[in-house]
Amino acid sequence: xxxxxxxxxxxxxxxxxxxxxxxxxxxxxxxxxxxxxxxxxxxxxxxxxxxxxxxxxxxxxxxxxxxxxxxxxxxxxxxxxxxxxxxxxxxxxxxxxxxxxxxxxxxxxxxxxxxxxxxxxxxxxxxxxxxxxxxxxxxxxxxxxxxxxxxxxxxxxxxxxxxxxxxxxxxxxxxxxxxxxxxxxxxxxxxxxxxxxxxxxxxxxxxxxxxxxxxxxxxxxxxxxxxxxxxxxxxxxxxxxxxxxxxxxxxxxxxxxxxxxxxxxxxxxxxxxxxxxxxxxxxxxxxxxxxxxxxxxxxxxxxxxxxxxxxxxxxxxxxxxxxxxxxxxxxxxxxxxxxxxxxxxxxxxxxxxxxxxxxxxxxxxxxxxxxxxxxxxxxxxxxxxxxxxxxxxxxxxxxxxxxxxxxxxxxxxxxxxxxxxxxxxxxxxxxxxxxxxxxxxxxxxxxxxxxxxxxxxxxxxxxxxxxxxxxx
Amino acid sequence: xxxxxxxxxxxxxxxxxxxxxxxxxxxxxxxxxxxxxxxxxxxxxxxxxxxxxxxxxxxxxxxxxxxxxxxxxxxxxxxxxxxxxxxxxxxxxxxxxxxxxxxxxxxxxxxxxxxxxxxxxxxxxxxxxxxxxxxxxxxxxxxxxxxxxxxxxxxxxxxxxxxxxxxxxxxxxxxxxxxxxxxxxxxxxxxxxxxxxxxxxxxxxxxxxxxxxxxxxxxxxxxxxxxxxxxxxxxxxxxxxxxxxxxxxxxxxxxxxxxxxxxxxxxxxxxxxxxxxxxxxxxxxxxxxxxxxxxxxxxxxxxxxxxxxxxxxxxxxxxxxxxxxxxxxxxxxxxxxxxxxxxxxxxxxxxxxxxxxxxxxxxxxxxxxxxxxxxxxxxxxxxxxxxxxxxxxxxxxxxxxxxxxxxxxxxxxxxxxxxxxxxxxxxxxxxxxxxxxxxxxxxxxxxxxxxxxxxxxxxxxxxxxxxxxxxx
Lengths: 472, 472
Known about the structure:
By secondary structure, chain A is α+β, with helices and mostly antiparallel strands. The first copy, chain A, is built from 16 helices and 17 strands.
């Protein structure tokens, strides 16, 4: 490693190289708060040529690279545990001018989502991706994790809004994946492969993003539900209503109780085991302005609280405060699964009964993106004294929990990704032959095994992994 | 081949196997009308187990398989030229029931687009893909070619509307790519890789398709333009208008003249070198019903013909009759390229001057999907006597033409795909390193080289290819 560091220092400007122990700790870590961080150096290149040099040196010295964005991930995808080089994209933060003919915007990998939103704030256009972590999350990370969020039901994942990616590969070559064109059926689509690959195939340096129109106004609804079946009935009714759904969320009464303890300023809600919360794009008109025939289709709305944009925060606060409220109650172990929407009722019944057995003495919270079949199952341990034992307990239950997910044809990582945390579960839900394909595909793009080793799957010739630990 | 045929006959019901010479000719061919068709057998399985048997026998006897749908492709992707087995999906034509919770529909690979549209005709939902070939084009082929069409500007390609694919791989294993779930960030996304892979990675047997709402009404506009620059100004204005664009097309005066000769029932248009034609989703209101402020933004519309859905055919006829009108004029050689939308003006200037030199004695027609940067360049030879010489001439000009496309960062196949016809051009626009990745990725998924050999790229150990020929 010393010879490698010496050559980095001889080939790169001093300000690109950071070996301060605090930087190694902070850049080696993501929001999963792994306890065993081990990074050799933080590199903050300013040019593509510097990235090419870094990759060539990593290859020569058999070092490994963790491509690094805002490190807001929840699966350990940006954590360094094996003495890797952290390749931070913080200094790649330029944006192009809005292209109104193509409705696109060129953006470097280190631009934060918040900066991008500010850049577009005075225009009628949006990049329709929104996340709580937007102040830190960077474009490169959002693409590498194919980020989701609240509006997937309307706009899909990040993947839908990416026109082109510029990447540096394992041979230090710049690869343009698609280019800034809208139609390109010329051979295998590697842009789509790199999106969601969690930094294992190369270093993303820039992208052309596609934009769309912002809704002119929205209307928001909160409705108590006696069962998951009733939630699904609301979903079907809300989909059939003559407005376009922008989001459709749900959460359990336990979530509301935790939120109310954390946020005493919020009003209590009519008691019910479940709540649905959704938004419609009301550009075509508010529900009460629709024709009598159209509104008749909405008589089921009588039990819902309906508000306009100006009061949206009053009902969205119950949903948006859940994560923070739970973190104040104790240690949190997160599961992020998806099943077919129409199987949610049976799945949640089985899951609730499993959780009641498996997590005695802990608190279990169900919430998430009902319209996408995406359930966040958070296990809370009010006793903060033994994070290792709590994590070990949750991991010991995972084979049963994820076997249930797999039985329903579900995903072990709906939006958070696999990273270091869900590799065993990946085998259950994707199956061994597809994971084997992943390993072989990685070898095609990254023949020297330089990029983000040990993430998503174990490579065949794996460097011994430092012990992993997480307390979230 | 005889031993293989005998074993096929011993393992499969008689009605699955067709060796009638007319069937071999017809199923070995697509809309490119290759003259050198060479197929060994047409197989029409009825069950997945039969497909698994066919693949296992192909592997054992070192035979090759051409997965076959409606064969409406324009690049030779479904043509058999090397004595392959044609695996027709005609008998996989079942559809599931509409899933209103997930807004999805399960569909077997052999369902035609027209059948799917009929299935949804009485619902508020659509699979927003539409093509002139819908009566023959099958779901499996639409996915394998990532089909485009008129509405890509609003809805994107086929890939955006596919939730899950069920495929049989080279080891006769059934692989579910994603499953019927909306969120799944668990490792590399192979669904996206298989879409657009032109049948080279496996046999698609079924898919879950995502649906969306049909527009309630649309408004259509035709506007003469003095230059490509004026066309682009119309595009930007039409995008900024408070209605959502559904399509934005353009065509040259020569196209209109050819259409008017073929369709004397159509009115002549005000003379102009170019015409733009577009549709807006007018669900929020017709342009003339918008508020004065909103309509003021549309004063540029004064030179446009605006019509409602009921009269849409009057202006769309000019665009939709082009292909047929040109085919009545002579032999047609088709190019289907895309460049960045904002570079269309410079690109078309260079292209027009190139075509004037390169195609003396022939007619050249420019039309296509301006809003997607997608230009169809059709060369017509009024003399039908020498198809081979005409094709050879066009192919001799391709290196220059596609070098120009590559200089603008364009695609050599915007929507038609590569197939057998655009393999040389692929190297120019994707570059040798990405084509090498394609070859290696194919080996991962198809280690025995069973599927659609010689399409998109030459495999490393290529069976000698029969001479190719096309007259379209």
